[in-house]
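[Meeting: bench + compute handoff]

Bench side (C.D.) handed over the final construct sequence. Compute side (W.E.) agreed to return the predicted structure before the next meeting so the bench team could plan truncations. Sequence as handed over:
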Amino acid sequence: MSAPFLLSNTNKTNFPDVKLALREPDGLLAIGGDLSVERLVSAYPQGIFPWYSEGQPILWWSPDPRMVLQPSDVKVSRSLAKNIRNKSFKITFDQNFIDVISACSEPRLEKGIKQNDTWILDEMIEAYVKLHEAGYAHSIECWQNDKLVGGLYGIAIGNVFFGESMFSRVSDASKVAFIYLSKQLEKWNFQLIDCQVYTAHLESLGAKMISRKKFISLLKQYAINDGEHNTWQADFDLVDFVISSISNKSAVTKNE
């Protein structure tokens, strides 16, 4: 047999070896199954995530190479550093998960044209809300004048954060949320942020490509489900820690 493999609806933790994933389309490994908490919590530490569009069955992916970021390596441009020092935004954790994931599911503008397709379907939202209620999925909210203007969400297992999606309604909002997330994860001794696939947006923030083999090796070290899953709350000194970090010239990169 060869990929994509058909998943059973009964065994929710069994996935094929990611080495068997297709090269084209890159990383397609399996098809079917469900989006239960048990299956999703099993998939991510194995380097697998669901991604599909309306009208398609559930598709499971493990691309090679993989885009990742070590939290302490996040890059902050001069313009972003100025925004952060001016406290243009307020950042919270796990205060409005449903609005964040719903905003991430909204059609995006590309070159001024609204794109109607989205992979964050209603059943995906329902599944990740359940993950949030179980303490695995988390949101980071970016506020301006008491309005939600940006944010992101993902899944935390062990010392790895698996990023899923982000959104911005004003310039830099998602980037600032990502920087705050990275710095908080650094304080919490997280070792890796999984960014899944390449984007220039994430590259500008310091993410880089590594081989799937290296990625799986890191997951075996750090993505260990320890059974502790709680609502996140930012450390009381996080703002000062972020500002102190970006004030260090070595942490500030040349503005793009």
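W.E. noted at the follow-up: Residues 111-115, 249-256 have pLDDT under 50 and may be disordered. C.D. will use this when planning the next construct.
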